[in-house]
Amino acid sequence: DQAQPEPLPATGSVVGVDMGIANFLADSNGEFVPNPRHGAKASAKLEAAQQALSRCKRGSKRRRKAVDTVARLHRKVRRQRLDHAHKTALDLVREHDFVAHEDLKIRNMNRAPAPKPDPNQPGSFLPNGASAKAGLNRSIADAGWGVFLAILAAKAEGAGRQVMAVDPRNTSRTCPECRHVSAENRPTQEKFHCVSCDHTAHADTVGAINVLRAGLVRRDATPA
User: Fold this and answer.
1) Cβ 144 vs Cβ 89: under 8 Å
2) Is residue 211 over pLDDT 80?
3) Architecture of domain 14-105+138-221 in CATH?
């Protein structure tokens, strides 16, 4: 049996976080955690190791060594991803009493786009963005959002902190100043510019602010 960890002292701080690809996360205080992209950095070595494996004869000693090399590279990426998730979650838990994050449906986000049959050519298909979606899916998997959120929840429980997931819809399209909601409020991936009140900010920071507000509303509405 392991002793239960002691709750951390209260800080009086609350924060919202917005998960992303360009940055691993942005918080409602305007801070960013860079995306380490461990898988992408190791991709060249992994590709070379897998090509070497494919050239080996089945059952040979060289093939066993090649299999071990591929497995070792995958283990290294997995350890790096876990280490980054633990450190990022620990920082949030130490600094804040309440953390709100998007309720991400990661499995749904990783679905391949449906085929688009060409009505003019039976048996042919129109472009459906599958290649770009595959690249996005690899980036989502490399970021490891699901692993991070699970670790965050576990650390928060042990530290006596509260973590709450909120609906992510329109969080990056809603102006934190005037509350105007529009897709035009986000002209680029990073830029937020409200078409109603001219408020400008980083789009991920805006998303984190709105996530925090939604989380606080939900927390206050939840019976103790």
Assistant:
1) no
2) yes
3) 2-Layer Sandwich (3.30)
Q: Answer yes or no: are the C-beta atoms of 38 and 143 closer than 8 Å.
A: no
Token pair listed for 121: 């050519």
Residue 9 CB burial class (10 angstroms; 0-12, 13-18, ≥19):
exposed
Contacts of 5 (CB under 8 A, 6+ apart): 158, 159
- Nearest residue to 108 via CA among 85, 133, 127: 133
Query: What is the CB neighbour count within 10 angstroms for residue 152?
Result: 22
Classify burial at 64, counting beta carbons within 10 Å of its beta carbon; exposed 0-12, middle 13-18, buried 19 or more: exposed
What pTM does this model have? 0.80
Distance CA 61, CA 170 (A): 55
In the predicted structure, residue 114 carries a pLDDT above the cut 80: no
Q: Domain locations in the chain?
A: 14-105+138-221
